[in-house]
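Morning!

This is the sequence you dropped in the shared folder:
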Amino acid sequence: MTGEENVVDSPDEDAGSATIDGLAIELILELRFRGLTVAVAESLTGGLLAAKLIDPPGASAVVMGGVVAYNSALKHSLLGVESSVLAIHGAVSPDVASRMALGVRERCAVDGRPTDIGIATTGAAGPDPQDGQPPGTVYLGISTSRGTRVVPLVLDGDRPTIRNTTVYQALLLMKRTMAEFGNK
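The structure's back. Tokens below.
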């Protein structure tokens, strides 16, 4: 559960979803080439990340599923985030992001095999703070057989911008993580 640098690149305003869409296509092709699978746990992005991953043709071969756990009780019941962690840290925390990523990886298992990559988004999109965290506070959790880690983000912008930038950053994190698997 170690953190990385704060990554705040945004998709180009002009390219917008084309940048995100292009990255999603690259990821689906790479996942298929490597024979890897992915599952998504979302809070702040509310299904946007799963939708982007499912858009490209061939996604059904590698995207196993996803959970939108917008309510904290669902983070516990569907993803296995301990109630005590939610009570102590709130939903917007690195501990919750890491447990969401691990939980979705395990719970979206097919034939007893966990997905290769579990990715999670949690944060405060605004306009109001959530669990004492200001808008733009985001945590991405990513889990593989090699471990689970969290990337904290501090984002600027309105609610749609924060949510879309989170999706973009999650896709970039997946791309970097797949590179860690090395050549096929």
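Headline: Residues 41 and 120 are 5 Å apart (CA to CA).

More detail when I'm at my desk.
O.
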